[in-house]
Specification:
Elements lengths: L4 E7 L13 H18 L8 E9 L8 E10 L5 E8 L5 E10 L28 E7 L13 H17 L5 H6 L2 E12 L8 E11 L3 E10 L5 E13 L4 E2 L4 H8 L6
Antiparallel strand pairs: 1-3, 2-5, 2-7, 3-4, 4-5, 6-8, 7-10, 8-9, 9-10, 10-11
Amino acid sequence: MTGYSETFRNDVATWEVDATEHFTVAYYYEKFEAAAWRFLHDAGVDPGAARTVEALTHYKAELRNRDIYKVETALIAGGERPTIAHKLFNAETGALCTTMQQTLAGVSLSGPTVAWDGDEREDRPIPGEEAAWVPSLRDVARPGEADWAGYLSLPGYIHRFSTANSFIMSAFGMTPEYMTENRIGLSTFEFQLVFHGQAKPGDMIDMDSCIAQMGGSSVRFCHRMRHAVTGAEIASLSQFGVQLDLDARRPSRIADDLRQRAQALLPGN
């Protein structure tokens, strides 16, 4: 691809596979974080000075245990708030599995840009206090989760958002036991992630989550992460996914009783 350079190459390790039996979303972010470091280094800027302020990610095809993959990266918007794009391919089949548009602060990038040919951001309303927000995380950032600049790494955030899913799903009956017994999982196809601040080791983190939309097989969750002491918002995530039949590896309809309970938690109900 003209304008793109390979920035990462690896395989899916067994411990990187989640309960949905595919590559854990947090590990995509770990690899994109490494790809961004190499890309910025090769561009002649200090990668340690960069921080992510927005990330738009679309998951298009699964990666599963032992799959091999590569990441290619390009500059799609330069300036004082540059955006770089990552495309992750299955290295065996050539299939495009995931794309991420990563907007940065703290560094400036100039030079030729590549026209973005992937999914565009779709504005989705974020529920306010009228929503049924559920406490979904109480945690602390640990030293081993810090990135090269000393702040909580990208996968450190995403692991916590994934944990929050378990609590908001349990609120309408999609509990871990229910999902195990019925051989279903949640397969994410879009992340809209926005950073309002940064967490560092020792920071206590609280998170609340709500249901923003509900369809036949699809659901959108919104998560907000705050500093437990100051109350300052650290990050927010709008996440779209589908209920996945783990045997057929296809979306499946959410049970009517669960969907009715979920709809009762939607904003305005």
